[in-house]
Amino acid sequence: MYKAIFIFLFLMIPLFSPAQSTYYELRIYQCNDGKLDDLLNRFRNHTTKLFEKHGMENIGYWVPSEGNEQILYYILGYPDKAAREASWKAFLSDPEWQEVARRSELNGKIVAKITSRFMTLNTSLTPAIDISAAAEPRLFEMRTYDCYPGKYPDLIKRFKDHALGLFEKHGMTNIMYFDTDDGSLLYFRTHKDAETARRSLEAFRSDPAWIKARDESEKDEKIVKKMDGIFLKPVDFSRMR
């Protein structure tokens, strides 16, 4: 009996793989026209492995779920900011990477623009990141909230006390929440598909519990100055799917 339990627990270990990093980077690559597939092939066959070689943790990779935008979104994890700088220095000077980059761009430059956001995990909203693959494909939603001055703690409190539970109530799964270096809240949640997402968001926004929580939290003044959101689908080589 004990042997059977041990084997069961051992088999269960790979199903939950918490990220080991404490410092994160969201990188957004805007490709030149028609070059997204070339970029994905480079990441799939080379880049992700070289990241790991140089101490970076691959968290997740996504592309927009709708439209023909030539954009790749991905998150890397690092032990700290200093480790991030050292890893990128080593990666960019690696002869293997330099040859991969050269060969992949024989027919033209792939990436037109790179944007980065640096983040730490908000452990009051996300105790740990689960980077094991889901049983079925998920639709990811990335949202960013910029607050009015001094209102960020109020936003975090509203999420912790109300929004997280209400998201789950209406079929949305909380994945990871980050405090960005520029003072925003950036988070990911998932849905089964686009139609389920639409129904869940409609139900959440009309829920009396949410309306009450929102109004009470903003009885003195508004909290959120600007909110952006996008639906994303994981690529085939993403650890988080």
Quick take:
This protein is an alpha+beta fold and 241 residues long. The protein has helices at residues 2-12, 36-53, 81-92, 95-104, 152-169, 194-206, 208-217; strands at 23-31, 57-64, 71-78, 111-121, 139-147, 173-180, 185-191, 224-234. It folds into 2 domains: 20-120, Alpha-Beta Plaits (2-Layer Sandwich), CATH 3.30.70; 122-127 and 135-234, Alpha-Beta Plaits, CATH 3.30.70.
Q: What structural class do you assign from the helix and strand content?
A: alpha+beta
Strand content: 25-35%
Q: What is the CATH architecture assignment of the largest domain?
A: 2-Layer Sandwich
CATH C-level label of the largest domain: Alpha Beta
Radius of gyration based on Cα positions:
20 Å
The portion of residues assigned to helices is: 25-40%
Number of helices: 7
> Span between N and C termini?
34 Å
Q: What is the CATH T-level topology of the largest domain?
A: Alpha-Beta Plaits
Which sequence of SSEs, written as H and E, runs from N to C?
A: HEHEEHHEEHEEHHE
Overall, the morphology is globular
Unreliable segments of 5+ consecutive residues: 1-17
Strand order of the largest sheet: 1-3-2-8-5-7-6-4
Largest pleated sheet: 8 strands, antiparallel, barrel
Mean pLDDT: 92
Number of self-contained structural domains:
2
Count the E strands: 8
